[in-house]
Amino acid sequence: MKKSVFFTVALSAVLFGSLLMQPTYANTSANGLSTAHAAAHLEKMHIQLEKPSSNPKIDEKAAISKAKQKFSKWAEDATETTVEYQLMTNPDYQMFSPEALSKNPKLKAAGHMEKLPVYIVSFKGMSYAGHIPQGFTGDIPIHHEYNVVVDAETGEPLIGFSYR
Amino acid sequence: MKKTISILAMGMLLSLFSETAGHAATQSNSFVGGKTSFYVNNSGSSNTADSGVTSVYTDIYTPDYPTINAKSGSCAWPMITSSIYGATEYVQVGWTDDSQVSQADGVHYFYEINYGSSSSDYQVYSSVGPQANRVHGYRVAKDNTNWNGNFTGTVDGALIASYPGFVGNGVQYYEEIYGYDLTSTSFAGTNTNKAKFSNLRAFVNGSTIYSPALTMYFDRNGGYDDSHYKSNDQTSYLYLWDTRH
C-alpha cells in the first residue's frame, strides 16, 4: 500500500515536472485572427498577422517541405512541426531571394511583406543558444521554436525568425 | 500493476533528467576577433545626453564556408553592446552557417537583438546568405542620431530588421563557433586563405571612428593577424581564420 502511494506521488510529480519543462504557447485571437504566436513579441518584431480571406495557392505539405529544405538544421532537430496560414505584414525586412521576388510581382513591387498570404511553419522542441557577445556573463538566451515564413502563392521561403 | 506504474515513473524521470542535462550542459561558444568600449554619459532617458554608439560597420570577406558538426554552427558579425544598465544588451548582424546538409541552403544572413535578459532575445534569418569568396558590408545603425530610435540591420544596404534600440557603449567584431559539438566545427578562413574584416567603423556620440582601437581575443583554434590594423586608419584590416585548416 505504501509503495503504491509512493509511486502515485512520484508519477504525479514527474508528470507535473514534465508539464513545467514544456514551453507554453498561448492562443491569441483578435479580429477573427487565430494564432499560437505571442502578440506582444510579434509587435516588437513589427510583424502583423491578419486572417486571410482567400485560400492559399500551394498546399501545406509543400510549404513544410520548402521550409525544411531551406532551414534544414531546424527541421532536423525539431520534435514537433506546426503550420499556420496567415496574412503577414512586415515593413522591416527586404532580403528576399531573387526567386521569391521574380515569382511574386506583388512582393517585388512592394519590396516588403504587405498583407501577404503566407504559411508560418514552426519547428519546435530544440534548444539553441543565442549568439552572445564575447565575454558575456549573463544568462544565455535559449530558443525552443524557429519559424519559417513561406509565400503561400509561390512556395518560396521568405524569412526565418525566433523569439522564444 | 504496481510494477508497471513504477517502471513508467522511472522511465519518465530518466527521460526528464537526460533532456535537462542535454539542453543545459553541453552548448558552448568560441570566438576570435576584437572589441572595445567607449565612455557614454547617458542613463537612457535624455536626448541632451551622449547618444552613445549609434552605428557599427565592417566589410567581411569570407573565402569559403566552414566545416559544421551536428547541432553546431559558425558565424561572423559586428555587434553593438551596452552595459550601461547593468545587464548586457546587444545587437548584431552577420552571416551564420549551421547546416551539414547543404551549404547552399545552410548559410543565412541574420540579425539578433537582446534586451538584457534571456527571455527578450529576437532573431531574424534571411532565406539567403552570402556567397563564398566575396566581400559583403554589414551594418547596425540607429534610424536616428538621438539616444533612442530603432537599430536597423543591413547587409550591402538591404534591410533585414529594425527593432527598438538601447544606448550602446561598446562594439565587437568577431567570428564565432557555437553549439553542442565544436570539435571540428570551424571558424571561417584557413591558414592559407584567411577571412578579412576591413573598413571597421563605429559612430560614437556623433563622431565616426575609423578602425577603433580593439582588444584582440581568441579561443582555441582561432587565429588572428592584426599587423595591418591601426586605429584611425581607414585602410586597416584584420585577418581571422581557423588554425586547424
TrEMBL record, chain A:
Q: What span is annotated as the signal peptide, if there is one?
A: 1-26
The alphabetized UniProt keywords are:
Signal
Q: Which domain of life is it from?
A: Bacteria
> What name does the UniProt record give this protein?
PepSY domain-containing protein
Q: Which organism is it from?
A: Tumebacillus flagellatus
TrEMBL record, chain B:
The protein's UniProt keywords, in alphabetical order, are: Signal
UniProt organism field: Tumebacillus flagellatus
| Signal peptide region | 1-24
Identify the domain of life: Bacteria
Quote the protein name from its UniProt record: Uncharacterized protein
